[in-house]
């Protein structure tokens, strides 16, 4: 009993110290000019590339992801820091607006000026499946730093040494190491969310984990924004004009990429009954291999999900279609694909629409594309929805359902692989995310860590530079309703 108390006390001191150092560092960081912050972010990107030879072997020891994948992920993480340097120099993220006074308006309008400001200290939960790009130096961290916030990261238990080393590399490139805190342990996550100096939380993980964080936030005296990415089945609709062989090979590759451990993994595929689509998919999946999953916890979750589907095989709700090879490792898992008719699948909702994180999917056979919208409308929200067809007209009636269902719509491609760019939206309706208006990938992710402040009839010399009449920083602004760049 006393041991548990000591652990909790140590965790509190650890979290308290990290958050307090972050809050102290944030004051100077938010006052740092955007150009200087941009140069710091570029320096972090350079540091990550410089230390790649040290970083990837440590990550491989903990994740089994291999040199090629991990080097690529380090490069992606560095590119994210450089991209957000561009965001800072662009200035549009500030959403600066100036409305001059108009005494003739009804009612009379005062001088009102609005600009975004950093929200405060951000708590970030690392993801398991990207030890760099969605972890200590991942998109949540870089977007929050770009916004002018300090960050405290709760390291993922699947790669603690990688987290420590990454944090060390990044801190040496920051003007104040307190801008990036790092805490470990299950209890630390709860303490981080509860801490009164934490102003927002970002999370990528399971639905259960997201619900637990939301409960803690709801119990705070001052509930704070929570941006969680929780789970997604990413439906794929294959229309009759698509090529069965191409669809089968593309699906099998996407399903098994990274042993299926991607939030954009295609977990549902709707195919015509005629045309041999299900047969081609089964043959392609049977030729695939699985492998070791990132953690024992993820592996156990995958096996439970597959066992749940096997149970539905016994009741006749689904049929086993194909199984790949698990591979030589004793703790490896095999890809599994099941199949069902559209009506039977619909009768099995919502259970059959639940995510099974890993290389598992259900192939749903339909007779008429006109029957698809009614079923698509019953699916849980997803990060992506995909259509395979040769004619846009063939998919026209599906568009309203797909727009309601997912945050990114893919045409004749596969959802795995998320481009880090200005236009990307990596979000979606519940349970894909807790806030479908926001993205966790791409430049718009900075909006999560900003809050607007309006200044009414404020003296020019006391205004933020972005709102002063002469616009000394030259940021894009909307002035009296017109965009001025």
Describe this protein's structure.
Keywords: Oxidoreductase. GO terms for molecular function: oxidoreductase activity, acting on the aldehyde or oxo group of donors, NAD or NADP as acceptor. This is Aldehyde dehydrogenase (NADP(+)). Pfam families: Aldedh. There is one protein chain. This protein has 485 residues and is an alpha/beta fold. Helices cover 40% and strands 18% of the residues. The strands form 3 sheets. The protein has a 7-stranded mixed beta sheet with strand order 10-11-12-9-8-13-14, with helices on both faces. A 5-stranded mixed beta sheet has the order 15-2-1-16-17, with no helix packed on it. A 5-stranded parallel beta sheet has the order 5-4-3-6-7, with helices on both faces. Residues 1-11 have low confidence and may be disordered.
Q: What's the structural blueprint in terms of helices and strands?
A:
Blueprint: H1 2-30, H2 34-50, H3 52-63, H4 67-90, E1 96-99, E2 112-118, E3 121-125, H5 139-147, E4 151-154, H6 160-173, E5 180-183, H7 186-194, E6 198-204, H8 207-219, E7 226-229, E8 236-238, H9 244-256, E9 268-272, H10 277-286, H11 296-315, E10 319-323, E11 336-341, H12 342-347, E12 360-366, H13 372-376, E13 382-388, H14 392-395, H15 399-405, E14 406-411, E15 450-456, E16 477-479, E17 482-484
Parallel strand pairs: 1-16, 3-4, 3-6, 4-5, 6-7, 8-9, 8-13, 9-12, 11-12, 13-14
Antiparallel strand pairs: 1-2, 2-15, 10-11, 16-17
Helix pairs in contact: 1-7, 2-4, 2-6, 3-4, 3-6, 4-5, 9-10
Protein name: Aldehyde dehydrogenase (NADP(+))
InterPro entries: Ald_DH/histidinol_DH, Ald_DH_C, Ald_DH_N, Aldehyde_DH_dom, Aldehyde_DH_Superfamily, ALDH_KGSADH
GO molecular function, one term: oxidoreductase activity, acting on the aldehyde or oxo group of donors, NAD or NADP as acceptor
């Amino acid at each position: 009993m006393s041991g548990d108390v000591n652990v909790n006390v140590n965790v509190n001191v650890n979290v308290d110290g990290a958050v307090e150092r972050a809050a102290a560092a944030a004051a100077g960081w938010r006052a740092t000019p955007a150009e200087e912050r941009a140069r710091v972010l570029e320096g972090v990107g350079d540091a990550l590339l410089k230390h790649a030879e040290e970083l990837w072997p440590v990550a491989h020891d903990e994740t089994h992801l291999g040199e090629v994948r991990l080097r690529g992920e380090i490069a992606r993480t560095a590119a994210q820091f450089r991209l957000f340097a561009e965001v800072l120099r662009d200035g549009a993220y500030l959403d600066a607006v100036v409305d001059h006074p108009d005494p003739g308006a009804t009612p009379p309008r005062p001088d009102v000026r609005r600009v975004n400001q950093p929200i405060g200290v951000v708590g970030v939960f690392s993801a398991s499946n990207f030890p760099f790009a969605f972890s200590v130096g991942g998109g949540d961290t870089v977007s929050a730093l770009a916004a002018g916030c300090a960050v405290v990261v709760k390291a993922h238990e699947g790669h603690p040494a990688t987290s420590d080393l990454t944090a060390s590399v990044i801190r040496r490139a920051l003007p104040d190491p307190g801008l990036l805190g790092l805490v470990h342990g299950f209890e630390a996550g709860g303490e981080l969310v509860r801490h009164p100096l934490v102003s927002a939380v970002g999370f990528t993980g399971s639905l259960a984990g997201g619900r637990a964080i939301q409960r803690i936030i709801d119990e705070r005296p001052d509930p704070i924004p929570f941006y969680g990415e929780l789970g997604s089945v990413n439906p794929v609709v294959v229309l009759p004009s698509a090529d069965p062989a191409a669809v089968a090979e593309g699906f099998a590759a996407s399903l098994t990429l990274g042993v299926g451990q991607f939030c954009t993994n295609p977990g549902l595929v709707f195919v015509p009954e005629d045309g041999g689509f299900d047969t081609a998919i089964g043959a392609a999946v049977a030729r695939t291999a699985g492998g070791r999953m990132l953690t024992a916890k993820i592996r156990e979750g995958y096996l439970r999900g597959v066992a749940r589907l096997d149970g539905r095989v016994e009741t006749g709700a689904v049929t086993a279609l194909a199984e790949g090879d698990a591979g030589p490792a004793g703790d490896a898992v095999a890809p599994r694909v099941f199949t069902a008719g559209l009506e039977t699948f619909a009768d099995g909702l919502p259970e059959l629409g639940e995510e099974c994180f890993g290389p598992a999917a259900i192939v749903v056979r339909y007779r008429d594309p006109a029957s698809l919208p009614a079923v698509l409308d019953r699916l849980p929200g997803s990060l992506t929805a995909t259509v395979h067809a040769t004619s846009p007209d063939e998919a026209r009636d599906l568009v309203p359902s797909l727009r309601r269902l997912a945050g990114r719509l893919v045409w004749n491609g596969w959802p795995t692989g998320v481009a880090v760019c200005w236009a990307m939206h990596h979000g979606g309706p519940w349970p894909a995310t807790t806030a479908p208006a926001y993205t966790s990938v791409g430049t718009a992710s900075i909006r999560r860590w900003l809050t607007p402040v309006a200044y009414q009839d404020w003296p020019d010399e006391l205004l933020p530079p972005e709102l002063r009449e002469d616009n000394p920083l030259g940021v894009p602004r909307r002035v009296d309703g017109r965009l001025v760049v």
